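Structure request: Ribonuclease P protein component, Rhodococcus indonesiensis.
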Amino acid sequence: MLPEPYRLRRRADFSETVRRGRRQGRRDLVVHAIEREQAELVVSFGGPRFGFVVSKAVGPAVIRHRVARRLRHICATLVDEVPVGADVVVRALPGAASASSRELDRQVRSGLARLGLVETARRPG
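Returned structure:
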């Protein structure tokens, strides 16, 4: 599970990340990212923050919550790899409902690698 300090909660943070940040599209999701200013880091927790957007287009509530849980789990493994000042929003597309967890992991890592936030798209080990 993704610990509370590493989660985006405020609407303004989501909006800023999606509107002002860079994005990288994948088949089943879109990764948006922005790096926070140094002044903002002093008052924040001091780690990367992740947020998730899983709309009704993905499926009914059970499916949406399953996709969100899988994405939270994937991002929990990335906390040590993503720079401290980064805000990341992962927006699930309808294909995420039928994608495997391994495929979603690969797509998130690939998107973050293309944005220059992780070293490589391959999972270690």
